[in-house]
Design a protein that fits this description.
The chain is built from 6 helices and no strands. It is about 60% helix and about 0% strand. By secondary structure, the chain is mostly helical.
């Protein structure tokens, strides 16, 4: 992906209400004040253990009144992927 294309996609996400709400949801898990971007690796960069990751998943599920299929959870690495997964589930496309 070109730099210009990546910047356009990031700008699109900045206007995305789901993305912005996910950033808010991530704040309590961001103990090291990592700059959150669409490409932030949630577990690695935020240094979350598996229990914290599951707490985050449950928090997002509660916020959006959704349930992540287990196979979807295992594929989510970045903030962008989490945002896309929420959108897919809300559209009935995940799983």
């Amino acid at each position: 992906m070109s730099t210009a294309n990546a910047q356009t996609k990031s700008a699109d996400l900045a206007d995305d209400l789901v993305y912005r709400r996910i950033l808010q949801t991530l704040e309590p898990f961001n103990q090291h004040n990592v700059k959150l971007t669409p490409e932030t690796d949630i577990a690695t960069e935020l240094e979350l253990d598996s229990i914290a990751v599951m707490d985050l998943v449950m928090e997002v599920e509660d916020v959006y009144d959704i349930s992540f299929p287990i196979n979807v959870i295992s594929e989510i690495r970045t903030v962008r992927e989490l945002t896309e997964a929420v959108h897919a589930i809300k559209r009935g496309e995940a799983g």
